[in-house]
User: Fold these one by one.
Assistant:
Number 1:
Amino acid sequence: MKVLDNLRYTSEHEWLRVEGEEAYVGVTDFAQHELGDIVFVEVETVGEVLDKGDTFGTIEAVKTVSDMYMPISGEVLEFNDALVDKPELINQDPFGEGWVIKIRILNKSQVDSLLSAEAYKQLTGANE
């Protein structure tokens, strides 16, 4: 399982990559592995301002449907349209082409409350 050092993580298995005043959000390698083959991603929150912990969309795998949660407060600027035709990008490249949304950061201090790569590895047992 991959955990990238330059990202921040949530205990609900989302990752956040900060780029200035904006950030990309996706689901972790651990999450996509646990979900299995992803067949559909739905995000209907583009243009909305959401608080940390709010549901921003759903991800559907062959066996289950799961909510995806905002790692920090922000305005949802964009949905990765590539996931409409190829939701499996999350399985193939969860930290790259499989990103889910781009947000405008509302409270940058919330980033510090997220898990570091090391803390996320401990949460998921990736160090073992």
Number 2:
Amino acid sequence: MKKRSTRRYRAQPASLIALQLPIPRRDRLDPDMRRYFAACDEHLGFLPNVLAAYSFDQVKLRAFVAMYNDLMLGDSRLSRLEREMIAVVVSAANRCYYCLTAHGQAVREMSGDPSLGETLVMNYRVAVLSRRQRAMLDFAHRLTTVPAETGAADRKALRRAGFNDRDIWDICAVTAFFNMTNRIATPTDMMPNEQYLAASR
């Protein structure tokens, strides 16, 4: 008889990830990171586990935060919702539990449509999307699953959908970023905060 798994899908402070890394107490962090974590508490109501996990090395934490904030919150013709939609489609292709949970919740919240986050998690192709969004997500999925096969035809399809060259750069950058985060979160068994699970439904 196959032994039943005892793995728990609840994020506990002592077991953010499977790796045994020296995650410091918040009061041991540098002042700028303490302020950033406090801002997360105020804005979100909790600290995302990915940030807590990265805090074992504050150089890496700052680099991650800077890249995330630039790509997801910075100036772009892609809306914040569209960037979150890319995050979900990439994470679905990679089957990344952490990012699907966290960014699926962001899509639910930003869209005001609980079903959209779930549909993108399961199969973005059945979601009700604009032509622009469909082209964007088709490209993000293709770049994730068959990157060596993407090229001029894909760029042409994005331009036909209304994206300019800067937009295409942004789509590529967000797609690449979440492929990177998926490939850190999954093998380290990073667990999402339980607050994501019931929110915005």
Number 3:
Amino acid sequence: MIIVVDDDKAVRESLKFSLQLDGMDVHVCDSAAALLDYPGLYDAACLVVDYRMPETDGFALREKLAARGVSAPQILMTAPVSSALRHRAKVAGFFAILEKPLLDDVLLRNVRAAIGD
């Protein structure tokens, strides 16, 4: 299962639809808190996480996930992506950082690579 975390409903639903079209099982969360409360969290094969969310950011969420032992690869999304942010994401251990809007099949390619498909 792929979990998408984004506070923007249109983005969540669009990414869910795109991944489901490719046959993936997708769950969406509207916040970091919803993700952390989600019973299926530990079943995730990959997490796609927004960088800027109202109550936290993707980096703080990654730390919380690591503290809970969540080891699924995580992909960070934001706009714009600076070289400093790209470096920070790499150091933090994100599998990839993607720039919104996600064009073509960039999300699908990165999710597939993250899950080894």
